[in-house]
Amino acid sequence: MTIDDTGFNYVRQLVRDHAAIVLEDGKQYLVDNRLSLLARREGMESAQEVIDRLRAAPDGALQRKVIEAMTTTETLFFRDGKPYQALRHTILPELQRMRAGERRLQIWSGACSSGQEPYSVGMLVREYFPALTSWDLRMVATDISTEMLARSRSGRYSQLEVSRGLPSAFLAKYFDRVESEWQIRSELRRMVEFRELNLAAPWGALPPADLIMLRNVLIYFDVEIKRAVLAKVRKVLRPGGFLMLGTAETTMKLDDSFELLRSDGASYYRVRAAPT
């Protein structure tokens, strides 16, 4: 390990201030590993050199690269399985029924990483709800990392990435082989608009959503930020809309405006109806 306690505490404060990510005690190895990878990409000798250069000249391009290096980008197609079964059997059919009059549907994937989640939803829609493709269907996917957003827009994935969670029939139907990688076909890529967004900062003009997928991101925030994010979710979520969190996440003891629903072994949420 090349970083000292002072360097670790500096990075820990930096990512909390700029991305609301909480690095607990004992995560020094994680910072060292990720900044060592960044050091090699930037032609530096060590993670400590990255920190030293950043402290000498903060607020520049290197600061952004450090913050992006410290965000968790682990994801895969149809991650955890059961939430997508709930989408197929319960959530999307109900939204299709509720919005049939206006024929408009908005889906937001927050903290989308390299794009597998929104593309998984897009495949689900095209496979099982083809009528929705003639609606005013908008899918927005956001992430704090410009590097991950660039990867998402390209829609290109390695053999390992398409081997994890993606049904082989979907690979054949929705991907093209491009050299050593697989690329999402253009009609599916056009379904998703990718934007940069820091969940802990003001959200700006994010369109109202019928379905918000904010999975496996709240676990990295402290209680104060979690509550603030959920409060903003309530403002963006359309009446009757749904919120999906990660399997280890909950709104309990954070925001009692949400009611817990379950189907297909998955949990999800809806804003409680106002008492009459």
The largest sheet, given as strand count, sense and whether it forms a barrel, is: 5 strands, parallel
Helix content: 40-55%
Lateral strand order in the biggest sheet: 6-2-1-7-8
Tell me which oligomeric state these chains represent.
single chain
The fraction of residues assigned to DSSP E strands is 15-25%
Task: Work out the radius of gyration.
Answer: 20 Å
Structural class: alpha/beta
User: What is the total tally of β strands?
Assistant: 10
**Individual helix count:** 11
Q: Tell me the distance between the termini.
A: 60 Å
Kindly report the average pLDDT value: 91
Query: Which shape, going by the Cα principal axes?
Result: globular
Order of helices and strands: HHHHHEHEHEHHEEHEEHEEE
pLDDT < 50 stretches: none
Describe this structure in words.
- The chain is of the alpha/beta class.
- It is built from eleven helices and ten strands.
- It has helices at 5-19, 28-41, 47-56, 61-69, 82-98, 116-128, 146-154, 159-162, 168-174, 186-189, 223-236, and strands at 104-109, 136-143, 156-157, 175-178, 181-184, 192-196, 209-214, 237-245, 258-263, 266-271.
- Strands 6-2-1-7-8 form a five-stranded parallel β-sheet. Strands 3-5-4 form a three-stranded antiparallel β-sheet.
- Strand 1, helix 6 (116-128) and strand 2 form a beta-alpha-beta unit.
- Helix 2 packs across helix 3 and helix 5 packs across helix 6 (116-128).
- The chain is globular, with a radius of gyration of 20 Å.
- The mean pLDDT is 91.
